[in-house]
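Worked example 2:
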Amino acid sequence: MRPRVLTLTLALFYVCAGQFCSSAQADPRKELTGAISALAVEGKYDEALTKAAALIKLTEVENGGNTSQHAEALSWAAYLHVVQGDVQGASTYFEKAVEIYGRVLPPDHPDLATSINNLGYYRYRLGRYQEAEALYQQALDIRERVLKPNDPAIADTLTNLGELYKARERADEAIPLLNRALEIRSRSLKAD
């Protein structure tokens, strides 16, 4: 279960990093983000975490760290801690990213929903199921309001919520969510 969810999270970050890498001007933030993404894809998590720390330092000086770029840098660090098995080490990063996104983005922004979804995953991994469920529901609500119906991000949150219900032995609630996630992915992603 963990690799599937983490792979989806990485894919979201990788797409964003690819957009940054296409810029004509050299921007240290974009270069670091691209490097983190590439290292993460290669499984070089320690090196990626070092770059993430540099990105955090770089972005925290802008507007006192109250920027979406700083929240993204924190999200990278959280993700990298989780893929290395350090879920507890990811805690501060996840929580701070949601807090910043909540201040600097509109309440229905997709990046806020992604951050809330990721915080839900963290809480789920710690066995804090009620908190995780509330966060997943909040992320799903945002995503369903602002994204297209077949967006894979909606399927990500449906899968996370379905897995939580499955772990809580609530199969009657899990099955429809997991089927819906599969349906979305079948329509929106290539067969391979």
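Residues 117 and 136 are 5 Å apart (CA to CA). The first helix runs from residue 2 to 21.
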